[in-house]
Amino acid sequence: MAAVTADQTTQAKAQGTVQATAGGPDGADGAQLAAFDAAVAADERIEPRDWMPDAYRASLVRQMAQHAHSEIIGMQPEANWISRAPSLRRKAILMAKVQDEAGHGLYLYSAAETLGTSREELLDKLHAGRQRYSSIFNYPTLTWADVGAIGWLVDGAAITNQVPLCRCSYGPYARAMVRICKEESFHQRQGYELLLALGRGTPAQRDMAQDAVNRWWWPSLMMFGPPDDASAHSEQSMIWKIKRHSNDELRQRFVDICVPQAEALGLTLPDPDLWWNEERGHHDFGSIDWTEFQEVLKGNGPCNEQRLTQRRRAHEEGAWVRDAAAAYAVKHHAEKHTTPTPTAEATA
Ligand SMILES: [Fe+2]
Ligand SMILES: [Fe+2]
């Protein structure tokens, strides 16, 4: 495959060798696979109309759906605090952030639709518990400081994971991630700034910030997924350049970023085994409780049921909005395509 150059790929695309086979069988045509492999090897983008292996398509749908679902389920724990934000400024910031997350879901469902799936189908699978969302959102937001800890740690972990996705081999996903990452970095900063304000506040506010960080630290590390040797999809995803770095590599990067930030906040990270390893040039950290991770994944986290019930209810209650939007689209389409008859014009 390495012998096929990027120029040959472009040529193959121009000659129509690379074809759209949405939903079709894996191409028996070796040239199609060679062109795909060469495009990936040359860091070119695979676009919706290009031929792609069925397994690549399925892997992207799985990952993008899980990502989209996480964006919209992730609105719930924070929305919990909109009505109780301590000031108008904080309320406006939080509302904007939660709205951003809805937008991220929208970009990602739209990007997934370019692979031949529909938003309706993906939402049905989420509601039926057949597709996942990030386990981090199955933890409760107990105090106002949790809004800060989520912004700093959860959005921070999301950015660490997602910046490399801006170079993902699938074009629509990569492009959606560029905008998402810009907004995520605003989310991370608002969380950090919120914790900074609490850290400089009264002893009770400082304790509240520390307590939130204590509860969110370990689940944030779990956001990078299982260790590399136990990760089912990682290796193939890296070959396809959907993923650029391993779970453990990204987790290490996140820990190294957070340690000096925690110091600047005047907060501690709840890990007695966290220390700078001069030899490695990285921080060593304690072992993660993967049993807890598996339990939350299985549906036994503190809020799994609440999150899905709320999501299903929101979907049902929003049915009239979808119906109205669809009726409006039909009416608008009909108006656009109806030209008045000469008689009607004459009469007028
Ligand atoms: Fe987001
Ligand atoms: Fe975010």
UniProtKB/TrEMBL annotation:
Region (Disordered): 1-26
SUPFAM superfamilies: Ferritin-like
Ranges of biased composition (kind: Polar residues): 1-18
InterPro entries in alphabetical order: Aromatic_CoA_ox/epox, Ferritin-like, Ferritin-like_SF, PaaA, PaaA_PaaC
Record's protein name: 1,2-phenylacetyl-CoA epoxidase subunit PaaA
NCBIfam families recorded: PA_CoA_Oxy1 (TIGR02156)
Source species, domain of life: Bacteria
Pfam family, one: PaaA_PaaC
